[in-house]
Amino acid sequence: MPGSGIHRRQVLSGLGVGAAGLFAGCLGGGDDDELHILTDLTGGEWETYWEEELIPGFEEDSDVPVNIEYTGLHGSGEQRLATLLQSGDAPEFYHGTTSEFGDLINQGLTRQVDDVVDDLEEEWGDALFKYTLQPMTGDRDEETHSIPHGVYVGGCLNYRADVYEALDLEVPETWDELVDNAQAIDESDEFEEMRGFGLAGEPVGKSGSDFANWLYNSGGDVWQENGDGELELWFDEEHVMPVLDVLLELSEYSPDASAIGWEDTIEDWIGGRYGQCFMNNAWLCGPAYEAGAEDLALATEQALIPTRDGADPVTRGWVLVNGTPIIDGSSNPETAEEFKRYMYGADNHVEVSLMEPMRFIPPYEEIIDDDEYQEAEIFQVEDGAFLEKNEFIMDEIVPELESPELPSSPETLHVGTFDIPAELTNRVLVDGEDPEEAYEWAVGEYETRYDDVQDQANY
């Protein structure tokens, strides 16, 4: 997901050796006879599945012991990875999107995994949105640096259809309509405890992901091609300032933005604290259903994120494949590749995809169409209502988002790990900084970071 948090990038630059030094001995210091996994695929049934099924099966087949570490969503995993890199005990792999490990890509610390993905495609067919796993440019633009786990569709407005119906609201197509809906929900007598919108304002994580969708729907982007095949900063005032303006408007109808991130959004939604928010996929439906709030889960609908009046967006939001980079220089990268073949192979991938069927959409159409997948318990509720939500996202929302032509490079992905849009959001919504001054800070930060990461490039 766009933006990743802090800490790891500081460690890599603070080591004073760069990627070359890491290859020379800082990595590969772990147990040569052990596979070390770092993952945020935890909670719910995940830990039981890892420890009682996936890992024992692999250990029995390979005779390689597996050490698994669990992290929370967005932030804690990056901190732990930074610590492991600094200590010379890098895990073989962890889970994320290319936007979350752009620093590792740029510094040459991710392994090319085309052989693994090719093997999986022989089983499942072509990987969906594979271009999001291929971060290189030029004659290396088809190199794959992550093994697909599941599809994240970021450009989704989630809303309470029951609340919309009760208040006679329409699905918004513009920002003004979205704000009007937020005000109507916030001021209604019928839903006194519900706020109109859940606005993320933490300085890392979800607020940066949401900002990317706002910026796209304002008609802008962070980077653009300069006509000479090079990328340049395009974080222009014309598109960014309207985003800050609408965030300030929505903050009048939101709980405290400083306390809203990924996990908070899920908890708040289940608690009925707001009636609209941005969220990947129909993710909110899964935890709500598992918590026993079936009616709430069914009433949670998805729509395309509204646009700014008069905007001409290049895309209506982002879509990325969450996956697994293999850390090049870790102790057992080949074993990690075999584990991924095992985890995502014919015997396990459907079951893996059903661990969080509303958070991730399978990365292969053959899994989406598989009988075992479609016959899962959650997809039998209300004649397949939750499966229909996933199908709606893929059929109606994704075509407005898929944009292989959006400019990107290892350097720009590296800059993305500094979470500049998230901090910009936090400065305006939480610290009360003047939007114009905060915008100027962000532009300067982008320029400085871009210069820095070009010096650190080692791919």
Automatic annotation (TrEMBL):
Database matches in InterPro entries: Bact_solute-bd_prot1 (IPR050490), SBP (IPR006059)
KW DNA repair (keyword) present: no
Keywords, ordered alphabetically: Cell membrane, Lipoprotein, Membrane, Palmitate, Signal, Sugar transport, Transport
Record's protein name: Multiple sugar transport system substrate-binding protein
